[in-house]
């Protein structure tokens, strides 16, 4: 996220905190007040993981101070009596952010039950510091009851944050469950339809075998110069049969396209969700192949795209190539997936420590049918369509490009360049909550 965008988010959150701080109560007949602002402050820190607590706390404190001064002026109250008291709001929020920043490093902030203790300690410490300053500057007497009161306030406010976060967590889990049920229903329906299309394709396999037999039989008769008067009819029959099979496959392909492009109605996906799915599935594939490979993802920026299927296909092909290139051995292989954003385009770098590609083969690897993967035990050769499909998708659907660098026995690195405007869409246009 850019610094300007980050600053705007902090200022926006601070304004909300300042507005919430107007809900407050006084304690023990003093100028000391506790407000609801810190509840919203804690919620923002939890929700925006990239938001730095200390700058956020300082700006929030200033926003609370300014708003209270404005309210005091509009209410025609005596500003001189409360100006110092209001300034200490900045001190409270700043120390809250400092204590929170120190403690949150020691726990996983997604563990809400542990987070609540960090909030209680942060709240109590910040209030005690504010009270201490008031006692020193205003020469006020220390009242032991206020510590118990502040502890109670810290527990109540932190508990409210815990209740809100827990409620949101279970609400999100409910939404995810409902979404999974919908997707599962669609998947069952899709599978049933695909099975039907596969039936017709499998049925045509028998027809293809029959045509191959007829073609070979015609070839033999032509070679032996037998039944020359039947050659033309046999050739026409073969051509008609091929045409019928072509029509059947056209219908099957059309049906599959309709199923995958229209019926599922998947409007889009966040890039980090794509990476999460890739991370899970590719690591499962590595375990299945019993290879010792470390797969690492580094994502610079999250974005929303409606071309998630194409991105998934591109990345899956490149990662599978990387996995295939790393031999089974005791040595740990490594695959890095790095995402960068530069000069209006996304750059995806997939590198591996595999066997590499011969220099003379590099210019051919994107050609359909070309493959360097041969199983010498079985004699099977890879179809060689993966990289040609990758290049076709990137160039046709994303208006991007793919480059490759490789050193034999050292590894291979693919760079995928995709313009931002060809892959990103506004999530607000596709998500309705």
Automatic annotation (TrEMBL):
Q: What is its EC number?
A: 2.7.13.3
Histidine kinase domain residues: 256-422
Q: Which organism is it from?
A: Gottschalkia acidurici (strain ATCC 7906 / DSM 604 / BCRC 14475 / CIP 104303 / KCTC 5404 / NCIMB 10678 / 9a) (Clostridium acidurici)
Question: SUPFAM superfamilies of this UniProt entry?
Answer: ATPase domain of HSP90 chaperone/DNA topoisomerase II/histidine kinase
Q: What is this protein called?
A: histidine kinase
Q: Which domain of life is it from?
A: Bacteria
Q: Which enzyme class?
A: transferase
PROSITE patterns, from UniProt?
HIS_KIN
GO MF terms here are: phosphorelay sensor kinase activity
